[in-house]
Amino acid sequence: MISKKNIRDLFKELDKALGEKGERREIIVFGSGPLIANDVVDRATVDIDMVEPPMDMILQLIAAEIGDKFGLDMTWLNSAGHIFSRNLPDGWKDRAKGHFEGKSLRVKFLDRGDLIITKFYAACQRGELDINDLAALNPTPPELTKAESWALKRENDPDWPAQVRLTLNTVKKKLKERDKGLGR
């Protein structure tokens, strides 16, 4: 599993391996990886999701070797989320924040606002784990409205708007319950 304890080590190993092969990469990551690395959530994940660039064969092979070394699946680093890159709000690449800079690897994370909208979308599709991640980001009402609007445009299923509303209400309820529990 990938956790706060080993995520930086994974990036260091990836940087080292890229350098040994004379390769350089800049990747932009979203999903739970940034939340784990920045102590927003205290949990582990099985993968790091790249939104940019699409995974090339060299990076895939290097990542698979590193995954084996760390006891991870060969797809611990993947670009399955690249499909989102064409739909993210304008300027998302410019807003991405640097997290790790090695000699051969630069890792950036989507900024908080873009993480909120992508986590909201994931929560609409997958549920509780992503809802908890989203709540940990502590989105403001305007940020939730923006995420809701973005998510509504992503699917054509006639049941989708109801799912988006249900997710929005669940997140708002979770935030309210958490705030009450903290005495706010």
Structural description of this entry:
The chain folds into two domains: 7-110, no CATH class; 113-179. The chain contains eight helices and five strands. The protein has helices at residues 7-20, 32-37, 57-70, 92-95, 112-126, 128-136, 141-152, 160-181, and strands spanning 25-30, 48-52, 77-78, 97-101, 105-109. It has a five-stranded mixed beta sheet with strand order 3-2-1-5-4. A hairpin with a 3-residue loop joins β4 and β5 (105-109).
Cα shape: globular
Biggest sheet strand order reads 3-2-1-5-4
Biggest sheet details? 5 strands, mixed
Helix content: 40-55%
Number of domains: 2
Low-confidence stretches: none
Task: Give the helix tally.
Answer: 8
Radius of gyration: 17 Å
Find the structural class using helix and strand composition.
alpha/beta
The termini sit apart by 35 Å
Mean pLDDT: 95
User: What is the count of β-strands?
Assistant: 5
- Order of SSEs: HEHEHEHEEHHHH
Could you write a compact summary of the structure shown?
Helix content is 52%, strand content 12%.
